[in-house]
Amino acid sequence: MKVLRTICRLVIGACLSFTGSHAVLAGPEHAPRVAFINPGYGDHGFWKDVSDTMHVAASQFGFEIVEFDSNRQWPLMAENANRVFAMNPPPDYIIASNEHQQGGRILIEANARQIPIFMLLNDLTDEQKNRLGRAGTNLPYWIATLTPDNKKAGFDIARSLVQADEKLHPDQPDREICLLSLAGDWNTPASLDRLAGLDVALAEYPKLVEKRRLVANWSYDEAYKRTAGWLPEGCLDAVWAANDDIARGAIAAIENAGKVAGKDVVVGGLNWSAEGLKLVKEGKMTMTHGGHFLAGAWIMVMVNDFHNGVDLQGRGPNYSFPMQAITRDNVDRFEKKFGKRNWDKVDFSQFSLAGKSGQKGTYHFDLEHLFIATKN
Q1: What's the pLDDT score for residue 233?
Q2: Mode of pairing for the β-strands spanning 177-183 and 238-241
Q3: Cis omega before residue 39 (within 30°)?
Q4: What does 160-181 look like in DSSP terms, one character per residue?
Q5: Alpha carbons 141 and 203: distance in angstroms, whole number
Q6: What is the percentage of the chain residues whose pLDDT exceeds 70?
Q7: Between 244-256 and 274-281, two packed helices, what is the crossing angle to 10 degrees?
Q8: pLDDT of the residue at 361
Q9: Cα(120)–Cα(106) distance, rounded to whole angstroms?
Q10: pTM
Q11: Lesser CB count within 10 Å: N end or C end of the chain?
């Protein structure tokens, strides 16, 4: 294999073409470099968790991550894309996200430079794909997209609010539940999909009555302001929050108004954050949905598979994985295994498809297989 790779590198300039795609075969002189355009913060929050799992998996597979943090500022994200494309030598692979729908330009630039690129957590919208192109066709260096099932997550959060309210008021089966919905933003595909799941739940549970839908920009502070501003205006029995930071901000406003989160007002969030897990244990949140920060590791599994000849475009190129709810029923088990966020105890090679062609491209990116892959 090493001899074959050396021949290929000398003959075709470090690229192996197959099924319309190009896998970069790194020479023995350096580890393959992956440029990660992080739309969030590198030192805290959800995207730090994504980055942490990505770095652990990359280390296990022998890749180098060069990360550019954008601090949830789309202009900085655009600047970071320019920095990636100015790298000399260029990266072997790029990982990007369509946060605030900024991914289209990055895909176009990567394809123009023939750099294989993977989209993470936020795919292009249908409108963007119709306008710009699709993976493996007119954008051949767009190798694959990995996204969680955000629509189901949005639905599950809303359903948990109904179930929690019904437990609190068993003698009022027809009780109207006044809902405040706090979205992440109006543009990011993940946010829009979570809202689509909420809309399905609103249709299925007519007792859940949305009084106001506001955007909180994924922020604790803005969620606090939105909730505090709404509380004097009318009834509030439940808060649907697009992530844990928003849920935390809402809970702070609820408690500062003299109400009890989990009793007077039920709140559901998403991210599997340490703070969210704590609030679930305390009964202040119905659940923290999520697990999608592990997509940082999952995408490195896919990059490694592609690097080793797995035809991801032929098997995909659109890959989805389930998010799962952590509630009071399973939070202790999760914290016992991963409460310290020590992801290096997971053997991520167990999720690889390399050398497993009989599995027909089936990835098992879920909580149970994560437990199974945990090293003793």
Answers
A1: 81
A2: parallel
A3: no
A4: HHHHHHHHH-TT-TT--EEEEE
A5: 40
A6: 91
A7: 50
A8: 58
A9: 13
A10: 0.81
A11: C
At residue 194, what is the residue type?
A: R
Cis-peptide, bond into residue 89, ω within 30° of zero: yes
Q: In what order do the strands lie in the sheet with 142-148?
A: 64-69, 33-38, 93-96, 117-120, 142-148, 318-321
The residue written with tokens 């027809």 in the block is: 174
Instruction: Give the bridge partners for 266, in sequence order.
Output: 238
For 351, list phi and psi in degrees, rounded to 5. -95, -5
* 120-162 pLDDT per residue, tens: 999 999 999 999 999 988 999 999 999 999 999 999 999 999 9
Rg of the chain (C-alpha set): 22
Q: Is residue 173 pLDDT above 50, yes or no?
A: yes
Q: Which two tokens stand for residue 288?
A: 């923290």
Type and span of the H or E element at 159: helix 150-168
Tell me how far apart the alpha carbons of residues 199 and 201 are, in angstroms, rounded to a whole number: 5
Reading the block at residue 66, the tokens are 């060069």
Write the DSSP symbol of residue 374: B
| Backbone φ, ψ for residue 69 (5° rounding) | -85, 135
**DSSP letters along 300-363, please?**
HHHHHHHHTT--HHHH-SEEEE--EEE-TTTHHHHHHHHTT--GGGB-GGGG--TT-GGGTT--
